[in-house]
Amino acid sequence: MGFPIVISIPSHGTAFDIVGKGVVNSNALKEAVLLAAKMAIWQS
Q: Best label site of 1, 3, 24, 33, fewest CB within 10 Å?
């Protein structure tokens, strides 16, 4: 997109409806961080 920094976010919102229920799946956050790392390497 031409941004000067890497931007990557998980594909969900804040998920207030499941807070404290122990049902969180952190895969989206993990994948967002991994993608941001790859993009940072590609830009260098």
A: 1
